[in-house]
Amino acid sequence: MMALSDLTPDDINRMSYNELIGIVRETNRPPGGRRSVHEIAARCFLRPESRVLDVGTSTGFTAIELARTVGCEIVGVDINEESLEEARRRARRLGLSRISFIRGDAHDLAFEDRSFDLVIAGNLVSLVPDPSELLSQLVRLLSANGCLALTPMYYIQAPPVDLVADVGKAIKVELAPRFRAEALRTLRLPDCEVVYSADFEFEEVTEDRIADFCQQILSRSHLESLLPRSRDALREVYLSYMKLFARNLSHMGFTILILRPGTTSDDPELFSAVAIPAGVTRNLPREMVAKL
Ligand SMILES: C[S@@+](CC[C@H](N)C(=O)[O-])C[C@H]1O[C@@H](n2cnc3c(N)ncnc32)[C@H](O)[C@@H]1O
């Protein structure tokens, strides 16, 4: 890892967004942030005895949130050492002991088969060229009745072609833009059942909020060791990425998807149910509903 004081503007401009995350020490969340993490913990019935693997952990948001709330044992893996350093710093600051962060490639992890009760691959599944290949690697790590939790992102409105290309350049990934049905199809595994699935869309973000956010991140004291011209380059590129992502996300949604290997021997569910908004009861006149 290069010292911040040695980074030139060219070094900064050459970095992908994922590398910049480690430099600025951003809190990089899965789509839906804390709410998605809590939903996954609850739906997977995580307990303090559970072992969890968070792949593509970045600066450790998901892993740290689960360590804080559930207290289970967690390993976070990422290919980016700079982001992992920040994840370790954050875990240390919070005094978390049952958490570790390891550098590794999600496609080639050296863990034993069936060693985790939950594997989370968040949005990493949207960034790899062959998600089903990645998933088959991850499924082998699951204990009996263990779960695989994903938060794939996809387009819900057709994006301009240049937008997809620019996002691809920013994260240095050749993106195959997918709509919901196709994105979820790539995550279908023959020997797994879907135990939970919920869809979301991203909210709009104003230019003012983007500017305030960037100002806050870039005024961190550790960045003072950058050369002034490198700091200027960082400001310019980071702000342009945030504007680009805001534009991109205004066309996107995501799903919290939980899969479990194996199929049950249960009969199909004939009498299924859907949630209805509070106060609305189908087939009953409103005045009767009020009396219920
Ligand atoms: C968008 S962030 C993920 C944020 C959040 N943890 C989530 O689950 O959505 C993607 C992260 O995956 C990492 N990554 C990309 N390819 C990877 C690979 N093959 N193995 C491990 N990590 C990878 C990147 O370095 C980056 O930190």
Within CATH, the superfamily of the domain at 22-203 and 252-263 carries the name Vaccinia Virus protein VP39
Strand content: 15-25%
Number of helices, where a helix is a run of at least 4 consecutive DSSP H or I residues: 11
CATH architecture of the domain at 22-203 and 252-263: 3-Layer(aba) Sandwich
Low-pLDDT runs: none
**Which geometry do the CA atoms define?**
globular
- The Rg value, from CA coordinates, equals 21 Å
Termini separation comes to 66 Å
CATH class of the domain at 22-203 and 252-263: Alpha Beta
Number of strands: 8
Spell out the helices and strands N to C: HHHEHEHEEHEEHHEHHEH
Sheet bearing the most strands, described?
8 strands, mixed
Structural class: alpha/beta
CATH domain topology of the domain at 22-203 and 252-263: Rossmann fold
* Ligands present: S-adenosylmethionine
Bin the helical content: 25-40%
Average pLDDT: 93
